[in-house]
Model the fold of this input.
Amino acid sequence: MTMLTEKVDTEFLAAAPQCKVVDNMAVGYDNVDVPVLIEHNVLLTNTPDVLTETTADLVWALILATARRIVEGQKTIEADDWKTWSPMFMVGQDVFGATLGIVGAGRIGAAVAQRATGFNMSIIYYNRRPVPALEAQIGATYCQDLDTLLTEADIVVTLVPLTDSTRGMFGAREFALMKPTAPFINAARGPMVKEMELYDALQHGRPWVAGLNVFEQEPIRADHPLLSLPNVIAVPHIGSATVATRTRMATVAATNLVAALTRQAVPNAVNPEVL
Ligand code: GLV
Ligand code: GLV
Done:
């Protein structure tokens, strides 16, 4: 049973030659080299679905906290820098009625979009292919390309899985396309963002602020340049971190493993072809 902190590759399998199942307690499995597992006839399982709503809640926590400068506000009070009420003190951006741009409209993206209807938002999304259900049920609009989404969104959220084609997907060029008022939220995987280019972009105020749940190197250290910026909110990869959901993930992972080892139908097989 692995966590996303374990890298499962040729070296791993060489050290565990009898391994039959890699039971990843996460929905994402970019820590696992799936072709190598297939080559060695090793089954991979994951824990989808049970964490969808919890992770969407965390994305919303970051949307509201970035747009309304919640962490900066707390730091201001703690530093005793709150001198008086004044008209443009700690002003942020509106969320209600804004246009939400979702990059990656899978299960979590759809759950984030559903919440946005309560905030009367226009929802646009970019995905490998259109998701008709999202358009029919939530009124989301498909963007043919990422550039259009980045240009039109008031708030950008990325939720795509990390693959060779999404690695480094957000860099200087993409940030320059965003509105100078836009929060940028990454709750997927750190390496999708070129972090030093994000650092430079934030210094120039585009995006306006970043809400980051994931990082190129985890754990991120306190002396990381991004953390020196006032317009960054960072949380330690806690998308699915509620008592109920982490308990469900552990239960799903255990169920997957027992099923695989007792040769019963495996609920969440990523590479069922090895069976
Ligand atoms: C967490 O990031 C997961 O993939 O479950
Ligand atoms: C006024 O009371 C305000 O909250 O801005």
